[in-house]
Amino acid sequence: MSVSPYRRTLRPRLLVLGALTLFFALLALTLGRYPLGLEDLLGALNPLADTLTQGAQIVRDLRLPRVLTALLVGSALALAGTAFQSLFANPLAAPDTLGLATGSAFGAILGLSLKGDVWAVQALALLGGLAAMAMVLMVTGAQRQRGLLPLILAGMVTAALFTALITLLKILSDPQDELPGLIYWMMGSLTGASWTSLSMGAIPLLIGTLWLWRYRWTLNLLALPEDEARSLGVNVTSARRSVIVAATLLTACSVSMTGLIGWIGLIMPHAARAWIGADTRRVLPMSALLGGLFLLVADTLARTITTAELPVAVITSLVGAPLFLWLLRRQGGAA
């Protein structure tokens, strides 16, 4: 039985990325203000261990959920970026540029200000993201405009509106108890990662990922002009709606777990396409692995390169902006 060229080219590269991700995940578990050895690592990862050393307890209770959160959130943001870039046939469409991440952040901050539980915060983040997406579509979709300028302008206006609402919530929050935590959360951080937040966030992230994976073939066709996609048997309206909801769910859940972390949804799809081609069936798994690996490395650097932990969004911006410029230059300005 012959193996398709698609599998021949994709599978080895996914294996390489998977091996790199596993290596950096294990490395991240040992690095930190309290360095750990192989014995602590093996003890923490042994499910049959009755008693744990202090080092193994640190790995199991603090670092392991943080590493898994970084992998899940990074993958989710990259998948959302891939979906939006394919859907709008636009290389700059991403949760950041569309204002979707800011809308989700507003919903999450509103939930935090109202002292809501994790599910309430995630639900409000999803509603905020859907509201932001609806605003963008009112400008670009209603006029059948899918060009670069209308989309970016709509995203800028949407982000500005929700940024103003976030600022209003900050002003109304308690300056002693609530405001410092909200400001730090807005900068993007994985310090709040725990088994509880991970278990609650993993469910909607898994649903959004599987939902999006179902449309891996359709996304290639949605990048075509609408008439051509319809002629090929695609229910364009239904497919677009489903992809938007799935990508918004991934973004909103990610934002509710870690705050605003930029650039991953924008540059990881470009990096995947530069390595594996433009076929969305390939780009989705490749960008997911790249996104998870990128956020994992960025978070490890954020908590180890200085004595005080940096917001991980600082690292992703310092690396992401030059990397995106390099990708643009490498592809002749048409990423």
Structural write-up:
74% of the residues lie in helices and 0% in strands. It is built from 14 helices and no strands. The model has no long low-confidence stretch (mean pLDDT 84). Helix 1 (5-30) packs parallel to helix 13. The protein has helices spanning 5-30, 38-45, 54-87, 100-113, 118-140, 148-172, 179-186, 195-213, 216-222, 226-231, 236-258, 264-276, 280-302, 312-330. It has 335 residues and is mostly helical.
Please write out the topology.
Elements: H1 5-30, H2 38-45, H3 54-87, H4 100-113, H5 118-140, H6 148-172, H7 179-186, H8 195-213, H9 216-222, H10 226-231, H11 236-258, H12 264-276, H13 280-302, H14 312-330
Compressed to H and E, one letter per element, the order equals: HHHHHHHHHHHHHH
Helical/strand content category: mainly alpha
- Give the percentage of residues in beta strands: under 5%
Q: Based on DSSP secondary structure assignment, what is the total number of beta strands? A: 0
Low-confidence stretches: none
The coarse silhouette is: globular
Residue-averaged pLDDT: 84
Largest sheet: none
| Oligomer state of the chains in this structure | single chain
Feature tags:
335 residues; mainly alpha
